[in-house]
Design a protein that fits this description.
Blueprint: E1 3-5, H1 13-23, H2 29-37, E2 42-44, E3 47-51, E4 55-58, E5 61-62, H3 72-79, E6 87-92, E7 98-102, E8 111-114, E9 129-133, H4 136-142
Length: 149
């Protein structure tokens, strides 16, 4: 079971709806529920397998909505034009890589790891994107502590 430390202030359905309308987005129900429960924060456990080639990753923080350091909207601005279209950043690792949520039809609900060190000039190049899970709940269930490996 995942525990969120440093969760941000609680958020309402209305605030999430306003955020989505403002940015012309439509979040999957699981992500909305996640925001309602924790509005981001530091997960524990926090390790996950990226791929056989990439090895393991550490989830540093999930972004939240509102006035906070790990503000989702600010990170969306930072990665706009860098992530493939149809993806938003929902968290990061300590090295500046991003955990992404697919919003478009082809990748809807899917969770991917975006490796900034392999970033292409073509933002729709998916060669630096690594599939992690079919949805947020599956990804959360894949997180583990280092000692479990």
């Amino acid at each position: 079971m995942i525990q969120m430390d440093g969760s941000h202030r609680p958020i309402t359905v209305e605030e999430i709806t306003e955020f989505q309308q403002k940015l012309n987005l439509s979040f999957p129900e699981q992500y909305i529920n996640f925001l309602l429960e924790s509005n981001g924060g530091d997960p524990s456990p926090s390790m996950f397998k990226i791929s056989d080639e990439q090895g393991e990753g550490v989830l540093n923080i999930f972004y939240g909505i509102g006035d906070m350091y790990s503000n989702l909207e600010e990170y969306m601005d930072i990665y706009e034009g860098r992530l493939p279209s149809g993806f938003i950043p929902i968290g990061n690792d300590p090295s500046g890589n991003v955990i992404c949520l697919g919003l478009n039809e082809k990748y809807c609900n899917n969770i991917y790891f975006w490796d900034h060190e392999q970033e292409s000039d073509n933002p729709d190049d998916m060669s630096n994107m690594f599939y992690l899970a079919s949805d947020l709940n599956e990804f959360l269930n894949l997180l583990y502590d280092e000692k479990e490996e």
